[in-house]
Specification:
This protein is an alpha/beta fold. The protein has 11 helices and 15 strands. The strands form 3 sheets. Strands 1, 4, 9, 10, 11, 12, 13, 14 and 15 form a 9-stranded mixed β-sheet that branches. A 4-stranded mixed β-sheet has the order 3-2-7-8. It has a two-stranded parallel sheet with strand order 5-6. Strand 10 (162-166), helix 6 (180-188) and strand 11 (193-195) form a beta-alpha-beta unit. Helix 1 packs across helix 9 (283-297). The longest helix is centred in the middle third of the chain and has 16 residues, at 143-158.
């Protein structure tokens, strides 16, 4: 049976200053679209997998433009529902060298934040699906969005569908009176695959490395094993815990890698030096898209799946916009060690 992946979350309008202009310098803003789960859907569709994105959009030209943008990349949008009054927006100022990038959210009262339980028929949406993916951004938007996300996870569990999540803690989004640590554990309990770093585990799940000093600037493998083991103990449904490893030399230069714990063995990917970052927004989402692809296409080979995820997300840093628009051949070429960037003729 062909693989079918469903993702659920918010797609936003992205308004970014061109190049490396600051907000007050730029005479105009470049409009594209993006959002955690939408970015994952585009990655997977781009790799040739049957992928659907579920959301709620305003029934106006902006909402329809967002849907059309997803269709352009081959994402199934047939389960998107319309309602509410506005599309969420985020503004981006890209940093360079020692100046960090800045993001300003304008997503209060967006259509998806006012979604309600029962608006989406999850049994129909998830029919014949093999994988369901969500991120911690969705339940942070509103209590309603958290409730619908839980509804989807519970349906996926009933249908024996693999569920993955990116913990994705965003402190600026949790504004409706509940902490991530109060909401997220119930949702995470239904997950088979969990992606997150040490901050995510601490802020979302209250889990910290045991007996390991993480203040030195260099985190040893034992820290990831400790956090992963605690996650698996707290959430026995979980089968794999993955951590992305980003070293920020500057806004323009990052090291990039990842580790995967399967309950018995820690897999470590090669480390890439991304010395001239074009756009790092969506980097984690491109990793998740690559990981889902790798786990589905290379069953039983967690090392290859992890290597694919890291290479795919490394290449994403060379592209403008939230979406990762590289193909399988390009990812596999980098996995094989060719990072020359020579012209392909």
């Amino acid at each position: 049976m062909a693989q079918k992946i469903v993702t659920f979350g918010e797609i936003m309008m992205r308004l970014a200053t061109p190049g490396y202009y600051r907000f007050h310098q730029s005479p105009h803003l470049e409009m594209t679209f993006g959002g955690g789960e939408a970015n994952v859907a585009v990655s997977l569709a781009n790799f040739g997998l049957n992928t659907a994105f579920v959301s709620r959009l305003p029934n106006n030209d902006l909402g329809k433009s967002a849907e059309m943008d997803l269709k352009k990349y081959g994402v199934d949008t047939s389960h998107i529902i319309y309602g509410g009054k506005r599309l969420g927006i985020y503004f981006l100022e890209s940093g360079a060298v020692s100046r960090a990038s800045k993001v300003i959210y304008d997503r209060a009262h967006s259509s998806i934040s006012e979604i309600e339980k029962g608006m989406i028929n999850w049994k129909d949406v998830l029919e014949n699906a093999t994988w369901f993916h969500w991120t911690g951004i969705t339940p942070a938007i509103s209590e309603n969005a958290a409730t619908v996300c839980l509804e989807a996870i519970e349906t996926a569990r009933q249908l024996d569908i693999t569920v993955s999540c990116d913990l994705n803690f965003r402190k600026n989004l949790w504004k409706y009176g509940k902490k991530a640590s109060e909401v997220m554990p119930e949702l995470v309990a239904g997950c088979d695959i969990i992606l997150g770093n040490e901050e995510d585990a601490a802020m979302v799940l209250g889990i910290h490395p045991e007996g390991v000093d993480v203040t030195s600037g260099h985190v040893e493998a034992e820290a990831y094993i400790s956090v992963s083991e605690q996650i698996m103990k707290q959430f026995p449904q979980c089968k794999k815990v993955i951590t992305t490893l980003r070293g920020s030399v500057s806004a323009s230069h990052n090291s990039w890698s990842g580790v995967l714990w399967d309950g018995q063995k820690l897999f470590e990917a090669p480390t890439y030096q991304i010395t001239h970052i074009v756009d790092r927004v969506g980097g984690g989402d491109s990793f998740m898209g690559g990981l889902i692809y790798g786990l589905l296409q290379y069953p039983g080979d967690d090392q290859k799946a992890l290597n694919f995820a890291v290479a795919a997300s490394c290449l994403k840093h060379t592209l403008h916009g939230d979406y990762n628009q590289v193909n399988i051949e390009e990812v596999e070429k980098l996995m094989a060690g060719d990072a020359s960037g020579r012209v392909s003729r």
